[in-house]
Write a structure and sequence with these properties.
- The protein starts with a strand and ends with a helix.
- Helix 6 links the parallel strand 5 and strand 6.
- By secondary structure, the chain is α/β, with parallel strands linked by helices.
- It has one domain: 4-Layer Sandwich (Metallo-beta-lactamase, Chain A).
- It is built from 11 helices and 11 strands.
Length: 273
Amino acid sequence: MHIHHLNCGCMCPLGGALFDGFSQGLTAQLVCHCLLIETNQGLVLVDTGFGLQDVQSPYSRLSPFFVHLNNIQFERKYTAIAQIEQLGFSKSDVRHIVLTHLDFDHAGGLEDFPEATVHVMQSEKEATQDRHGFVSSGRYRPKQWDEVKRWKFYMPGGEPWLGFEAVRDLAGLPPEILLIPLAGHTRGHAGVAIATGGGWLLHAGDAYFYRHEMDAANRHCTPGLQAYQWLMEVDREARLQNQDRLYALSCDRSSDVRMFCSHDAQELKAFAK
């Protein structure tokens, strides 16, 4: 397998370094870190970021509150389809999309790939049916996926992965790709683990937001991202417990796991190299 690291969304909230830890101006730099995996079964996307329809008509598809809070930059170049075409592929080459969860900044590009099968935790899809409250109605945007024809839903269980629950044998996907339930940020949030031949790569989604949350020497989070995590969590106990477990895994050098989250620009820069 060959893995491409893509930035499928640019967000520049006010706060600068209070969010991302490095910006010197008034705004921060947050990304939507997605993966494009070349496999014998075709292309596999892990998350989609924002899609073409989000760029063309953001206010008909997204919550104005989150559009302005995150200061989303709607440019076609950030969409997964634009980057996939730049790599020489077509939308029909994307056979599968594996989602960490269905938040607006992770699932916006689903309809750009109408032939793909979308894989997600059953509990996450069920959560989208219960859109009561300000945050839930803003984070889940059914217009982003109401044209998806092929879904595959999964329940937790099966052979563990490094002490975590794992969903293996995802339908039609190589056995090297696993879903790792990491509830807390959303009800059915999951990580995606990939066996690369040289160890494991773990896309942790929004289980954490800032690289130094996994830093053994100086574990901390910026106040802006800490507040955003509090705003978006559905189960604080589960979120913090899973974050602690990921931290322990990141400190275990014998595990041979490299992990990253969805929105840290410095992590994306390091992995894209």
